[in-house]
Each structure stands twice: as C-alpha cells, then as structure tokens.
Amino acid sequence: MNILEGDIRKLLPNKDDQLKWIARSSHNIKRFSLKEVEAVTKKYKTLIGQGSFGEVYKGILEDKIMVAVKKFKHMHNKTKENFAKELLVHSQINHRNVTRLIGYCLEENASMIVTEFISGGNLSDFLHNSNRSMCLDTRLRIGIECAEALSYMHSHMYTRVIHGDIQPANILLDHDNLNAKISDFGISRLLNMDKTLYTMNVVGSIGYMDPLFLRHGRLTTGSDVYSFGIVLIELFTRKRVNREDVNDNLADSFTKSLSTGFRMLRDMFDAEIAEQSNMKILEGIGKLAGRGATMSTATVVRRVLEKNQGRVFTQQPYQRERDGSTSLPRWKRRPKCRQCRPSKR
C-alpha cells in the first residue's frame, strides 16, 4: 500500500468507497509535510484568496515552480470525505487546460491540496474587475480551450468526470497569453457508465446551474455544458450573471434578445467586439449559447467555436500587393492584439 492509498483509507470510512476511489486514482502526486508547506508559503504569509472551504496561498517550491496551496478548515468527517474526493478526482485529470495537481498535505490538523499557480487570475475578475481589453478571437480561443477540457473530462477519460461548478471564477488565465485552465474540483463527481447521477445535495453556483438538476436532482455531463453556455454568454457580453434573481438572470435576458431582433441582440454583446463585421460570428455564438440545456456536448460546442474562430481571420477581403499579387490583409497575418492566436491543437 502506498502513502496515498493509506490516506484515502483514513479519509473514507466505507470500504467500498475506499476501493472505488483508490482504483480510479493515479498516484503520481507528492505528499507534502506540514513543515514543507509552511516553508513553501512562508508560514502562510502569502494569502491570495479565501472562501467557505478555507484559504488559498501562493508558494514557491525548491525547484522554483510556483504553486497554489488550498488549505481546508473545519475538517469534520464530511469535509475529510470531500477532501479525499477532490484529491482523487483531480489526480486523474491530465489536460493542458486543467490546472495540474502537484500534491497534498494531510496531517492531524491540516489538509491541503497543492496545484500549479496560474498568474493571471480568474476569468470573472478579468471580465468584471479590470479594464483590460479582450478581442473577439481571444474570447473564442478561451471558449475553445474550456470546451476541450470539458470534452476530455466527459468523453475521453476512463471514468467520466462532472465538474459540477463551471463558472468564470473557476476558469484561470495565465498572465501573458490568457491561456485558460479549469480549476476547483471541490464538488466534482465521477460518473458511472449510465452518464447520470442523482443527488439531493446542491451542486454548482446560482445563475449557472442546470434547470434539470434544480428540478430533479439529475446531474449529467449536460449539466456542465449548460453552465458552460452561461459562461459563454458572460464571456461575449461582459455582463454579470444576476445571482439574486434567478427568474431574471443573464441567460433569460440573452434568450429574449435572440428572439427580438438584431438591434437588441447587438446591444447585449460587449461593445468592444460588437462591430458590424463581427455580427455574423456573434449571432452564431449567440444561437449556440442561447440553446442552454439543449447545447448537446462539449465536443459539439468546441467545433462550433472553432468554426467561428476561423471566420475571424477570413471574413475580410484580400488586398493587392505592389507586385500585383493578392494576399490577406496585414492585420490578419499578424493580429494587432497580442492575445490573438489560433488555439493549439
């Protein structure tokens, strides 16, 4: 028995659960001692975030790798079980658009998860708490990268994973290129082959939650896709989801605008990208995101976004060079926005 398996047996009281989670996990992660974590975080002097679960600290490992340390508080039995499940779900995922799990710390009065540190903050803060510009192609690329990660979790893993809380606050961006990475697997679920999970526990964040789940407690990969549709609306409109009034939220307003005409739809999109030349692309994205719970799969969403991304670079006419030849306009060969670049496949 390795160290991780021993820790899981301590955290999960039910033997069937122990075997299930151990069998599904990978063990290529490090167990940190409490002293090591204290050294990495300079004795917890590097706080960068907090929530109901606990705090998040920034740290530097001996090999100079930057990490984020998620420290849990109030470790009662249910919290221990959730900690074990987050650890094991995250340990299975290996995708460039998902934050990488590096290790964990488990001692009598301390439970922590250590992941790679993403320097650019989260998508929610970028959209709503900053003045930085974001061109249409960059938004499409972020959407494609998130859709790729969801497609991987839903269709290409041995055991499918439902994230359960897809929202801009859980999508991290690197500082230089705004590459997107999905994070926070605290309420994620592993799926059996029937692709459906029934639960009475509240899963997700108000404003992003699948109506089917709210009504029946039926959690599927489609629940993630619905939440991602709301994220896309938020990404292209740069408007906040109305968390207080579920009956008049951003999704409802956007759906109404789709059926009321061009002008109202254009007013919904962020003015930075709502140029006349972009409207065909935005209308296509709007119809996709406005489908909500019927958006199909993350793979289909990714393909639609990729198709529209291609149009960004081909919608303008050719220009004639001095020698009489024609070529794409200079801005398309070398986009002005430094974040503009095709998604890496």
From TrEMBL:
Residues covered by region (Disordered): 312-345
Residue ranges with Basic residues bias: 330-345
GO biological process, one term: cell surface receptor signaling pathway
Protein name (record): Protein kinase domain-containing protein
Annotated positions binding ATP: K71
Signal peptide residues on this chain, from the entry's feature table: none
Gene3D superfamilies named among the record's database cross-references: Phosphorylase Kinase, domain 1, Transferase(Phosphotransferase) domain 1
InterPro entries per the UniProt record, alphabetical: Kinase-like_dom_sf, Prot_kinase_dom, Protein_kinase_ATP_BS, Ser-Thr/Tyr_kinase_cat_dom, WAK-like
